[in-house]
């Protein structure tokens, strides 16, 4: 995974922050597609995995716990679970590698709004999306009483 802090400039009118600049050298693959998704308060979206592309997130609004679990056979982080807290107070870009399970848990009190810049456009005819139930025994993590799928 790669994580990059996003600089936020604030004044009495509000804030401005850059979401992506190729000069950062943050990710070797070009920007080819972007979309926005939301997660309601207390809801979990996941578990999901992609085999052909990486996700690259930035949170616009709310508070989200991104939980990732690595089951890649030759990975040095195989079997590790990691939680990344994304919020309006600490903005970051996060890349999620291929073959890594991930779930988005809204831990805030308002809708979480996220922009994703995946490394490939969405293929409606053959989606690169694999799912597990939120409460799967395959991943050693519990979302408690949170709802979702």
Describe this structure in words.
The chain has 149 residues and is mainly beta. It has one domain: Jelly Rolls (Sandwich), CATH 2.60.120. The chain is built from no helices and 13 strands. The protein has strands spanning 2-5, 8-11, 14-17, 35-39, 43-49, 55-61, 63-70, 81-87, 92-96, 100-106, 112-116, 130-131, 147-148. Strands 5, 7, 8, 10, 12 and 13 form a 6-stranded mixed sheet that branches. Strands 1-9-6-11-4 form a 5-stranded antiparallel sheet, with no helix packed on it. Strand 2 and strand 3 form a beta hairpin.
Quaternary state of this entry equals: single chain
Average pLDDT metric = 94
> Can you tell me the residue ranges where pLDDT is under 50 for at least 5 consecutive residues?
none
**C-alpha Rg, in Å?**
15 Å
Task: Please work out how many helical segments DSSP would assign.
Answer: 0
**CATH architecture identity:** Sandwich
User: What separation lies between the terminal Cα atoms?
Assistant: 23 Å
How many structural domains are formed by the residues? 1
- The gross shape turns out to be globular
CATH superfamily: Jelly Rolls
How many strands?
A: 13
* N-to-C order of helices and strands: EEEEEEEEEEEEE
Largest sheet: 6 strands, mixed
- Per the CATH scheme, the topology name is Jelly Rolls
Structural class computed from helices and strand pairing: mainly beta
Helical proportion, percent range? under 10%
Q: How much β-strand is present in the residues?
A: 35-45%
Please report the first level of CATH classification, the CATH class.
Mainly Beta
């Amino acid at each position: 995974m790669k994580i990059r802090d996003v600089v936020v400039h604030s004044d009495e009118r509000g804030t401005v922050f850059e979401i992506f600049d190729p000069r950062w050298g943050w990710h070797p693959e070009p920007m080819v597609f972007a979309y926005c998704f939301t997660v309601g308060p207390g809801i979990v979206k996941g578990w999901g995995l992609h085999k052909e592309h990486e996700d690259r997130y930035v949170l616009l609004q709310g508070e989200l716990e991104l939980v990732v679990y690595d089951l890649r056979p030759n990975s040095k982080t195989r079997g590790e679970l990691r939680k990344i807290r994304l919020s309006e107070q600490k903005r970051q870009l996060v890349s999620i590698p291929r073959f890594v399970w991930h779930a988005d848990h809204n831990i805030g009190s308002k809708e979480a709004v996220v922009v994703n810049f995946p490394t490939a456009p969405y293929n409606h005819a053959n989606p690169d999306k694999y799912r597990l139930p939120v409460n799967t025994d395959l991943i050693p993590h519990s979302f408690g009483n949170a709802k979702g799928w």
